[in-house]
Amino acid sequence: MLLSILIIQILANIVFRTIVIEARTVLSEYTHRPDVKHFESELDRTTGYWSPSTSSIDWCERNYVVTQYIAEFWNCLSSLVFCLLSGILFFQALYYRIENRFLLLCLSYMFVGLGSAFFHGTLTYLGQMADELSMVYSMIIWWFILFRMDKFNKIRNKMYRLDLGIVFAIFYGILWTYMHSLKTFIVIFQVHFGLMVFGAILKSIFIYRQTQHRTRYIMCLIIIYVTLLIPALTSWILDQELCERMNTTGGFNPQLHAWWHVFCAIDSHVGLVCTEAMRLLSIKYNLHKIKHADSSTESFKPEDHLHIRFYFGLPYVDYSHTIQLKQQ
């Protein structure tokens, strides 16, 4: 235990010092970027409060149109939907005393929203890092929860095994932070994040196929999650492909990248609720096995242990039903 902590501290110090040294060079190099990716024939050079732009990409929304203090107003505003929806789930988790892992996941989605708002509001290198790195961090946390779905080992009893997962997650996050902050990959980042989402979907389907998770609620949530990716990706692609046409004189720009944010925020909400539901069933199934260890006739019926409620079209795990069952 002490050795693992010492190793983590040494690695963290080495990586931190390296990142600080390299960051100075990176920030000075990216003050006036010649390689900004944009989606019109000419880069939008409108100046505002945060000018000059230092990010490696400039989206289709025209800069500083609504106010001189926000570069991409609608993209910035729509990013806050992440904060709203994850904030609701965060307070629900606090109220029902759900596991800390879900509090952390909710917080990570809130940081995704704040980072995205910072990026689109300023179009700065620092804002871009806050946006893209927080997206990867949230996926790392989600993966950790999915791959520990059926684990119930106490920290004090299985510290070594737990440390391996946490150390790997931290190391992967630090490594990606270092690599991405030096070069600000665009295509590589997008492919990397897409693979993380695809892997999480496959893992969720695998968990659903287990007997204790096979309910219509889980299936429905997975289907909704995958289905929402279609309008989200469509908005994201069309915003880039039709950018020139939408921004020409007399054209209409429906701010499709802002709609991408809205769809992704709702999708993240659905994915988080689905993960909460699967974890609840895992806990209930574990308790059922302990309670009926001497009986093979008592079968576990997952549909009796999970209830999903919809409010304003958004799903939520009904933990109040679980509390009522405990009190009976």
Automatic annotation (TrEMBL):
Membrane topology recorded in Swiss-Prot or TrEMBL: Multi-pass membrane protein
Main location: membrane
Residues spanning the membrane: 77-95, 102-119, 125-147, 159-179, 185-206, 218-238
Required co-factors: Zn(2+)
GO terms, molecular function: hydrolase activity, acting on carbon-nitrogen (but not peptide) bonds, in linear amides; metal ion binding
Cellular location(s): Membrane
Alphabetical GO biological process terms: ceramide biosynthetic process; ceramide catabolic process
InterPro entries (alphabetical): ACER
Chain residues that bind Zn(2+): 120, 257, 261
Signal sequence, start to end: 1-17
Enzyme class: hydrolase
Entries under Pfam families matching the protein: Ceramidase
EC number: 3.5.1.-
Residues engaged in binding Ca(2+): 58-59, 61, 63, 72
UniProt keyword annotations, A-Z: Calcium, Hydrolase, Lipid metabolism, Membrane, Metal-binding, Signal, Transmembrane, Transmembrane helix, Zinc
Gene Ontology CC: one annotated term: endoplasmic reticulum membrane
Family: Belongs to the alkaline ceramidase family.
UniProt function note: Hydrolyzes the sphingolipid ceramide into sphingosine and free fatty acid.
Protein name: Alkaline ceramidase
Organism: Rotaria socialis
Classification of source organism: Eukaryota, Metazoa, Spiralia, Gnathifera, Rotifera
